[in-house]
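Sharing a chain and its predicted structure for anyone who wants a worked example. Both blocks are below, sequence first, tokens second.
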Amino acid sequence: MRTRSFFLLLLLSACGPSQYERELQVQVDSLQHQVARTYKPGLGEFMSNIQAHHNKLWFAGRHRNWKLADFEIHEIMEAVNDIGTFQAERKESKMVPEMLTPALDTLADAIRLQNGEEFDKRFEALTNTCNNCHRATGFEFNVVKAPETPAYDNQRYE
């Protein structure tokens, strides 16, 4: 009888979660709570970031500062990718890369070739693509254009 009780007790203790498993679950729960509270930029913040780089890109390209133009277009590309990563649950997030990537790629080609005339055309095409995306996603009231003055007067574009 004692042997049977011993094995029954052993079996019951093996069925329940161990202290180690409970500690792991506490850690998992804590990490999930931290992730849920971690700051995540909103779509508008990404768009404002893109707008700032769009502005800088225009003036870099107009002054034929190809290194700066290349830097700025890659900043836009990075923000477009980040939208897909951090705002994946939004339907607009799927459209942004689908619509913008081809326009960004052709503009990047003009920059790589250091072709000013092509840059001007491709920049206009990118701007039109932004507005088409805004219309397609219900943000038609948000119209972008080629800037007239630099948003940042503390940067040299030439």
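Comments welcome. The mean pLDDT is 90.
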